[in-house]
């Protein structure tokens, strides 16, 4: 860790609280030093700060040493995202910690990259699915090219029926991931739809960290004053095809 610090790599804390279970990661540069997962469903408020303190203790560091904080800002758990945003604002105010925010949908797309690397499957089209309640789902579509995912349909609200009608009728397989499948996978079944393994349905702080590091290298930091959770209140215009 000393060598990393000498190279000017900031100590960065990444937190993921938009999903059912939370997690945190501590790192410097491209290297994740420590990683922790909360013990159960929606334990963000009870355990997140203790988890982060444990990561710092194991690394021999203190909260005042955190130079960057990376958070996923949704869509997702209202309470969980508010906790992450509040933590980021507090660190910015107390330590002048720089903030980077990452869309939860982008975090989930990084799960698909891991799936490709692990299984060797060729995946070109991906949809991320999160439960928005009342029969609707947060959805985004991505295309894989050049080793990365590009969002082709921005985050929107849609029903499973409309999703299948608009996006699942093409000749190429559309792969799905996201916590919205946990209870509602059957609603998205279709002949040309495939699902990542369940282990890849949940966002994780390690992927928040990896995506945020790339933004940090470009100086793409969030303004702590205007930083807010990313919620989709109304359905916008949605393209009819991929």
Secondary structure topology:
Elements: H1 2-6, E1 11-16, E2 23-28, E3 31-37, H2 44-59, E4 68-72, H3 78-95, E5 98-102, H4 104-119, E6 125-133, E7 136-145, E8 148-158, H5 160-167, E9 174-177, H6 181-184, E10 193-195, H7 205-217
Parallel strand pairs: 1-4, 4-5, 6-9, 9-10
Antiparallel strand pairs: 1-2, 2-3, 6-7, 7-8
Helix pairs in contact: 4-7
Account of the 3D structure:
The protein is of the alpha/beta class and 242 residues long. The chain folds into 2 domains: 117 residues, ATPase, nucleotide binding domain (Nucleotidyltransferase, domain 5); 97 residues, ATPase, nucleotide binding domain (Nucleotidyltransferase, domain 5), CATH 3.30.420.40. It is 33% helix and 27% strand. Strands 3-2-1-4-5 form a 5-stranded mixed sheet, sandwiched between helices. The longest helix is centred in the middle third of the chain and has 18 residues. The C terminus is likely disordered.
Keywords for this entry:
alpha/beta; Nucleotidyltransferase, domain 5; five-stranded mixed β-sheet; 7 helices; disordered C terminus
What's this model, at a glance?
The protein has helices spanning 2-6, 44-59, 78-95, 104-119, 160-167, 181-184, 205-217; strands spanning 11-16, 23-28, 31-37, 68-72, 98-102, 125-133, 136-145, 148-158, 174-177, 193-195.
